[in-house]
Amino acid sequence: MTSAAQSDHYDGNSQEDQVRVRRDVWGLMPGADWDPTVLAYAKAVQVMQARPATDPRSWSYQGAIHSAFVTGPLMNQCQHGTWFFLAWHRMYLYFFERIVRANVDAHGGPADFALPYWNYDQPAPANTLPLAFRTPALPDGSANPLMLAPGGRSAGIAGGAQLRPQDTSSAAAMLTTAFVGRGPLSFGGDVSLPVRFARSAGQLEQQPHNIIHTVVGGPRPRGATDCRIGLMTDPRCAALDPIFWLHHANIDRLWVTWLAQGGGRSDPTDARWLNQRFTFVDEHGALVNLTVADILDTVSQLNYRYDDQTPAAVTAPAPRVMRMAPDEELVAATDQPVTLAGPVTAALVVPGSTRTRVQRLADPISAAYLAVDDIEAAQNPGVVYDLLLNDAYVGTFSLFGIELMNDPDRDHEGVPGLRHTFDVSAIVTTLEADGRWDPDELTVTVVPVAPAPVPGARAAGLEELGLEPITLGRISLFAVESETAA
Amino acid sequence: MIQRYPQWWIAGGVVAAWAGLAATTLGHALGPVHHHGFDPVHWTLMCVAMAVPPNLPAVRHVYANSIRVRRQWASGVYLAAYLAVWLGLGGIAYLVGLVTADVPERTVAVAGLGVAAAWQVTRAKRRAVLACARTVPLPPAGRRADAACVRFGLRQGRRCVVSCWPLMLLMGIVAVPLAAMAAAAVLMYAEERTTAGRRLVGSAVVLFSAAATAIAVFG
Question: Can you tell me the ipTM of this complex?
Answer without folding.
Answer: 0.85
